[in-house]
Amino acid sequence: MSVPAFGLGTFRLQGQVVIDSVSTALELGYRVIDTAQIYENEADVGAAIAASGIPREELFITSKIWVANFAKDRLIASLRESLEKLQTDYLDLTLIHWPSPEDQVPVEIFMGALLEAKRLGLTRQIGVSNFTIDLMKQAIAAVGADNIATNQIELHPYLQNRKVVEFAQSQGIQITSYMTLAYGEVLKDPLIQQIAQRLHATPAQVTLAWAVQSGYAVIPSSTKRANLQSNLGATALTLSEADMAQIATLDRGHRLTSPKGIAPVWD
Fold this sequence. Notes:
Layout: E1 8-9, H1 15-28, E2 32-34, H2 42-52, E3 60-65, H3 72-86, E4 91-96, H4 107-119, E5 123-129, H5 133-143, E6 150-154, H6 162-170, E7 174-178, H7 190-199, H8 203-213, E8 217-218, H9 225-232, H10 241-248
Parallel strand pairs: 1-2, 2-3, 3-4, 4-5, 5-6, 6-7, 7-8
Helix pairs in contact: 1-2, 2-3, 3-4, 4-5, 7-8
């Protein structure tokens, strides 16, 4: 897989809160950190990574280009700014965060600029986030499926996004699931709780294990040491085919994030 299966997300975490979260996660053994320009926490994430003393080659750092930086002359400049904040010479993965609102900047332009950033050595891999099937097709036409490591999308038991997943996988594009725990909503689900009880696991571990076993990368975030530690336990958990089939029945198209003016028309 192009993208490691398990990492730490930093959405909505800033200042000392994100520094503590990243520091604790790295101490516990996390090596994948996901951030974004719009999170306004790249400098804090960079400070936590630098303070950890972990060699750069052991880490996998992802950031995402914000929509205001899609113009050809702006994208690479903004990526260099991100690198400066993160105190690194390169990213392991750089994503287009959301499609360009009203197609103000055509997909071929920003994907071309992102591919150029890869050629310049500013990022090892490139990919997309929140892309529909049509947008993925446009991205593939622009840079080729081989150059698209992942499509990072909202994906959890209540929103399983099967059409997008099937198309991405048919093109060899990995799926990264964000909001895998649906802001905690799925943790209260009776079926998830039942499976967790039987396996002597937590509902979060069951949900994360379901996503990883489905072939997705996951990036759960937490500010609590106990949860960061517990979430890691999902990588050691194996769900049965029956468990996986039962969780598949929970899909209800329940989307939690769709920002006005930015979100595409979802599949």
